[in-house]
Structure formats: C-alpha cells, structure tokens
Amino acid sequence: MDRLKIVIVDDHPVIRRGVRDILAENPLFEVVGEAASGLEALQRVRETRPDLVLLDVTLPDRTGIEVLKDIRDWFPQIKVLVLSIHSEEQYAVRALRAGAVGYITKESAPEDLLQAIEAVLEGDIFVTETIARKLTKLTTRHETPETPHELLSDREFEVLRLLGQGKGISQIAAELGVSVKTVSTYRARILEKLGKESTAELIRYAVEHNLT
Known about the structure:
The chain is built from ten helices and five strands. The chain is 51% helix and 13% strand. The chain is globular and about 60 Å long.
C-alpha cells in the first residue's frame, strides 16, 4: 500500500517537529514537506502534491483561511485539515466553508490527531458534534447567525481579531500585507455590521467573545 503524503504548515518549528513525531507513529504516513508561511505552503504543495495538508490558521504572511482557499482552487484533489491553536468557535465553521475537511485544535491528544487524519483520508469530515450541529443550522434556510461577528467576511473577522489584540491600523496593514486605507475600510465595515461606534468598542467586543 502506498504511503500517504502529508505537508505540515505551521510557523512554529517546535509544533512542526511535534506533529512530525506524532505522524511517525503510523507507518502509512509520510511527511513530504514543511512550511512556515502561506507562500511557502503553496510552494511545498505545488512541489510535492500531497494527499493531505495540515494547516495552521495563523501564519506570518497570510491567514490560513486564505491559503486554504488557494489550495482548494488550485489543487482540489488535495485535502486540508486545519490544526489550530484557536478554539473551534472562532474558526471551525469558516474553515469548513472554505473547503477544509476537518478542524482540530492543538490542545487535542496525539491519538485524536491521528484519528482525525485517518478519518479525512477515508473521505469523512472531522469535526466535533457541536460544530457539526452549528454548521447544519447555519446552512438551513432562514437560519440567522448566533453571534454578530459571524456576519463578517473572513478578512473582516481577521481584522477584528487583530484589533482585539490591541494592534493598530498600520500594524495590521503590515501583518496582512495590505494598505492602511484597506484596513480602515475593513474597520468601517466591521463597525457597521456589529453596530459599534469606535475601535475601543470593537476591542471590547473581541475580548468578550474570546476572539483574540
């Protein structure tokens, strides 16, 4: 039986090493590449054409959700399992809507990660029952989001999260690789969608909803 090729994408070398060690427990898994950024991830995927990409949400040059969309657009046969430090409530639904085949947090036990990988490679979607129910509700006609920030686009959500961390407009622009004007536009849209009047209120909202 052919070994299943996997690429690990995470900007922390210790995490990549830990995941590689976990995958070594299954002789059918072969790590064929690692990446520490979105750009590097796409290069590794293009070079190795893996069966599965383990993708972090937070990367230094682009969001994991954006990288996920690119992988799905360019290499639709490659499966992507999101492995994130962020709770399911923050990113799971967004990741699944973008084309991920599962979402698991870094707090999970090693055996849970192996189980998740085996499940998605067999064609299943790996999420908790809570997220599965939430996704079903959101795809039901006339169903409204449970929280206002679910109305935000992926990029607007990322800007809100970074504002909640206390980062300024210029810093966010540099981190996301866009102009200050663009971030200001996102901020204005977020204020409107959440019904807030200032950045301070957005920061408070992000903190209260554990989005940081």
